Amino acid sequence: MFTDYVNLTRSKRNSEGWGDVSTLLGNQHFPAIRLHYIGIDDKYRNKGLIELLLLFALDDCIYISNYVGFNFVVLEALKRSVGFFEKQNFSKVKKNNDLQIMAIKVEDIVFQLGS
Asked: What is the reported pTM?
């Protein structure tokens, strides 16, 4: 996990309902926390462990957001993992070679964890 930024066009922000987000980094660059290398070995798939790891990581992001200003949590997903992260309310942002950049707005994490 480390601080980063995500590049979001106006049309992407509007299509995701993120039009209200503002930034001091320029028109399309938004402060973010990047989750780096979150995943599990294939032999542990479908046992609920990845959901638990993601929950712990997102909980840490919420805690950090109380001290560091950022709007999004971003990650790079393998093709086979995109569906999982979409189920967790992450949105596709752009492709980066074989990886899919995905993001979730911090406010949406709080809502998701609180419900």
From this structure: 0.84
Q: What are the structural domain ranges in the chain? A: 2-114
- Residue 42 scores a pLDDT above 90: no
The string of DSSP letters for the chain reads -EEEEEE--HHHHHHTT-TT---SS-SSEEEEEEE-S----GGGTTSSHHHHHHHHHHHHHHHHHTTS--SEEEEEE-GGGHHHHHHTT-EEEEEETTEEEEEEEHHHHHHHHH-
CATH superfamily of 2-114: Gcn5-related N-acetyltransferase (GNAT) (3.40.630.30)
